[in-house]
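for the writeup, i need someone to sanity check this before i put it in the appendix. the sequnce is what the collaborator sent (i think, or maybe the updated version? ugh). structure was predicted straight from it, no edits. if anything looks off just tell me and ill rerun, i have time this weekend
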Amino acid sequence: MSLAPGSRLGIYEIVASIGAGGMGEVYRARDPKLRRDVAIKVLPAAFATDPDRLARFEQEAHAVAALSHPHILAIHDFGRDNGLTYAVMELLEGQSLRDALRNGPVPRRKALDYATQIAKALDAAHTRGIVHRDLKPENVFVVSGGHVKVLDFGLASTRTLAPADDPSLTFATTAGGTQAGAIMGTPGYMSPEQVRGEVVDHRSDIFSFGCVLYEMLSGKRAFQGESSVDTLHAILRSEPRDLSTLTDLPSSVTRVVERCLEKDPAERIQS
């Protein structure tokens, strides 16, 4: 159900639709108390009677609120109104890292600056025992001026499998923590242990971080097959093309990326 401009959700007045995805619709809205615009993510009405979906949506809000970090999207409020469950977040102006990559690699200075900010966000989450589990360019937002925000921390969504040739599909997750046998993530950015359905820890995010850094520096995905199944197989069995053949980078930078992309979590950079 789409909300029309001028309608209300709790105390918030809907201004316009921003976008929609598997976890719901996002709107620009006005906070009358603080007189500022915010973003509101609304859980789809079809999920409103699903206790598991509701618990997972609320879990995300609690996880992000607990972090309170300058490089992580802030959540201001959480509520229910007229059968709809919603989370109120800071409104960002800028573009996703995915949009920034559509024109090719990010200039090296910017790429390393963005990477440093993403790493600080991950470190803050890992220190609190939170593993992102779906870090990818779509979940990194570059605010005007180059300030980076990581989105969807603590996301615990359940999604059905998309068609095998869809490179953006997200596999099912489990609430409360990743359990053995649950495959969760986005092909091209999942760690090998995610692909195998194993229990994951913060080092899985470090692998995903390596994939994002590789793509920012080269303009190419570290792992990409003709189908999502081919991509997952590449993550398990293949090495990405040597960065030094794609771009002129200091060896110190390529070593960091290579260490992040080690198949064995014990051989990766550990924090």
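The beta strands are 8-9, 12-21, 24-31, 36-42, 75-81, 84-90, 94-96, 140-143, 147-150. Residues 156-181 have pLDDT under 50 and may be disordered.
thx in advance!!
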